[in-house]
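Hi everyone, sorry if this is the wrong subforum. Our group has a chain we'd like a structural model of before ordering constructs, and none of us has done structure prediction before. Sequence below.
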Amino acid sequence: MNKLGALSLLLAVAAGADAFSTRPPSAAASHVAPSTQLAAKSDDDDALLQQRRGFLATAATAVVALPLLAPNAAYASGGATAGKYTTIPIAKRRYYGRVQEAVHEFLLMAPAVIKGDLTDPTVQDFFDVTKTVVVEGKKKDVNGVCTKKDGDCKAKDILDSRFNDMKTTMYLLGNAFRINQQKAPDNLPTVKAAKKFFRVMNKFELRVAKNPKTDDTQAAAMYAEALDLLDEYLDLVELPPTESGHYDKEFSTLVGETSRIT
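Answer:
Right subforum, don't worry. Here is the predicted structure as C-alpha cells:
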C-alpha cells in the first residue's frame, strides 16, 4: 500500500512536468494577425505560469509525503532497544570466557574451603594478585629487532588476582544485559546479583589475606552463601548453574573467542 501511494504521487508529479514543455506554434497560428498573436501569447504565458506553480506545489507535497508513506525506510533500527541485540553478543564475546574461567577456579576451592583450610593453594591462588595474566604483554621489537634505547623489548604482562578479574568481568557482562540506556547500571538485576556475590566474597577474601586458618568453619558458610548468589547471577546472564558440570574444564579467556557457551 505504501509503495502504491508513493508511486501515485510520483506519477502526479510527472504529469505536471508538461508545464515545462515547449511546443512550437501551429501552422494555423502563423497566419494570424500580429496583434492577435501578441494577445494569444500573453494568455499562453499566464497559463504556463499557473501550470508551473501547480507543478512545484505538487512536487513539494510529494517530497513531504514520501517519508510518511514509507516509515520502514525512514526509521532504521537503532537506539536503546537495538542495544539489546547488539551489546549482549559483544559482551559475551568479551567476557564469557573470563567469567567462566573464574567460576571454574572458584569451584576448585570448594574441597579445601569445606574443610575450612584457607591455606590451600587453590584458595590462595584465587586471591593472589600475581597469579593471573589479565592482559598479555605485547612485544616491543620491530621485525625481531629491539629499537628501544634501554634495550628492554620484553613483553610485560598485566597481572591481577582471578577474583579481581572476576569482579570486573561479572560487572561488565551484567551491565550489557539491559533493554534501554536510561537505566543506571546499579539498578539492573544482573548488576545487583553480581554485587551481592561481591559483598560476601570480599569478606571471604579478608579472611584469606589477613589470617588464613586451616579450620575456618565461618569461611565455609560464607562460601556456601556466595555459591548460591553466584548461581543467581549466572542464570541472569544466560550461563549454566555451578552444579551443571559445565565448569569442570578450563576456559579460554581470549577476547572475542566466542559468544557461545562451549
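For your construct planning: The radius of gyration is 37 Å. Residues 25-30, 62-86 have pLDDT under 50 and may be disordered.
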